[in-house]
Amino acid sequence: MTSVAPVDGSRPADHAETEWTRWRRPRPSPAQQRQDGWLALLVLANAVAMTLLVNSMGAFAGGTAPHLAEQLAWSVAVSLPLVVRRRFPLVVLLAVGVLFIAGQARQVGDGLVPSIALFIALYSAGAWTRDRVLARRVRIGVIVAMFGWLGYGLVRFLVRPTPVFEDAAGPLDPVLASVLYGILFNLLFFLSAYFFGEMAWMSARRRAELAHRAEQLRRSQAQNTRGAIIAERVRIARDLHDVVAHHVSVMGVQAGAARRVLDRDPGLAREALRTIEDTARTAVGELRGLLGVLRAEPAEEVPVGAVLGAPEGETSSPGLDQLPELAAKARIAGLDVAHGVYGEPRPVPGGVALSVYRVVQESLTNVVKHAGARKADVRVRFLESALEVEVADDGRGSAAATRGGGFGLVGMRERVAVHGGELEAGPRRAGGYLVRARFPA
């Protein structure tokens, strides 16, 4: 059962409560039906035993009783309906009620076990009837009928010659006391059966509600877990893209430069090869850190610096302080990069600083790979209400590969959006391409 938000403006909790008031108890399981069979046999065995004992003592309430075989037949008749007391509770209640009155009218010797059977039937009708309105009406009707039969018996008792109560010693008249005793005993008997049946039904409903909420909680936790896994996969994919795209781009540019000048300028070729070597080491270190996160047990803690490729022994992640290094690497790749900081510098959260670093890294990577630019300008502005980073170039458009299906701009937008920021990316009017990210202060 699911709870749907109401359209009348009432609270969802009120709607859920209304839904649960219409809950219907599931039908009995095969195991419960087998238990009912054993209960019926137990009641029957006690009915037979009590009938034999009463007849052996000759203690008949009405003074006489039918033949023993008929009394045993009445015991079987009043006990057998209990076999289906949970499957057809109202039918069983009506059947047992009719047999109870008919048995007393026939002055069957034992009245205890039929009373127990009637109690069980009344309780079962309250505990298992799915239509609560019908259950209430039938039970009240049976109770009224039983009190009517009791009243008939009391009238018969009163119109007969008054018996002699030789041992009476209480403050009340013996006849009045007998009448009050019969009324109070039956009132307690029937109200107890009604009350415990109602409580059993409410208890079953509460258990079902708790099970339903537990299942909802389990599904919600599973959904949250899946969301966390997806978010973590996106983060790892974003970091992998940043690491691989940037370093491989630098290595490709340097390898091409080394090939072109290898014969005429061996020194410059060696410098390019050294840059390729350093860049490869950095890329491998960052990839090893990311793989360490993937392979680590949940209880293990992996330093952030190891994940993001910080130098050995350093646990801080890349941030604003490492932007000059990015500019220097881009210059080695042949791009004239200017880096400037404007405004009054202030402390920046680590997550924002890392996102700024990755935005600049991805932007310079795109410039080197796709823009064909000669110059690029990296500007960091500390504004009053925001931190702004801007990468502009004079090339033909550094997002060409991204428009072709890459994930660079997508990753940048996701990083900026995590911190409630905005990303602008597109061609400049004067030529080139501009990437601007704004993070709220």
From TrEMBL:
<dbReference type="InterPro" id="IPR050482">
    <property type="entry name" value="Sensor_HK_TwoCompSys"/>
</dbReference>
<feature type="transmembrane region" description="Helical">
    <location>
        <begin position="111"/>
        <end position="128"/>
    </location>
</feature>
<protein>
    <recommendedName>
        <fullName>histidine kinase</fullName>
        <ecNumber>2.7.13.3</ecNumber>
    </recommendedName>
</protein>
<keyword id="KW-0597">Phosphoprotein</keyword>
<dbReference type="GO" id="GO:0000155">
    <property type="term" value="F:phosphorelay sensor kinase activity"/>
</dbReference>
<feature type="transmembrane region" description="Helical">
    <location>
        <begin position="88"/>
        <end position="105"/>
    </location>
</feature>
<keyword id="KW-0418">Kinase</keyword>
<keyword id="KW-0547">Nucleotide-binding</keyword>
<dbReference type="GO" id="GO:0016020">
    <property type="term" value="C:membrane"/>
</dbReference>
<feature type="transmembrane region" description="Helical">
    <location>
        <begin position="140"/>
        <end position="159"/>
    </location>
</feature>
<dbReference type="Pfam" id="PF02518">
    <property type="entry name" value="HATPase_c"/>
</dbReference>
<keyword id="KW-0808">Transferase</keyword>
<dbReference type="InterPro" id="IPR011712">
    <property type="entry name" value="Sig_transdc_His_kin_sub3_dim/P"/>
</dbReference>
<keyword id="KW-0067">ATP-binding</keyword>
<dbReference type="InterPro" id="IPR005467">
    <property type="entry name" value="His_kinase_dom"/>
</dbReference>
<feature type="transmembrane region" description="Helical">
    <location>
        <begin position="179"/>
        <end position="197"/>
    </location>
</feature>
<feature type="transmembrane region" description="Helical">
    <location>
        <begin position="37"/>
        <end position="54"/>
    </location>
</feature>
<keyword id="KW-0902">Two-component regulatory system</keyword>
<dbReference type="GO" id="GO:0005524">
    <property type="term" value="F:ATP binding"/>
</dbReference>
<feature type="compositionally biased region" description="Basic and acidic residues">
    <location>
        <begin position="11"/>
        <end position="22"/>
    </location>
</feature>
<keyword id="KW-1133">Transmembrane helix</keyword>
<keyword id="KW-0812">Transmembrane</keyword>
<feature type="region of interest" description="Disordered">
    <location>
        <begin position="1"/>
        <end position="31"/>
    </location>
</feature>
<keyword id="KW-0472">Membrane</keyword>
<dbReference type="InterPro" id="IPR036890">
    <property type="entry name" value="HATPase_C_sf"/>
</dbReference>
<dbReference type="InterPro" id="IPR003594">
    <property type="entry name" value="HATPase_dom"/>
</dbReference>
<dbReference type="GO" id="GO:0046983">
    <property type="term" value="F:protein dimerization activity"/>
</dbReference>
<feature type="domain" description="Histidine kinase">
    <location>
        <begin position="356"/>
        <end position="441"/>
    </location>
</feature>
<dbReference type="Pfam" id="PF07730">
    <property type="entry name" value="HisKA_3"/>
</dbReference>
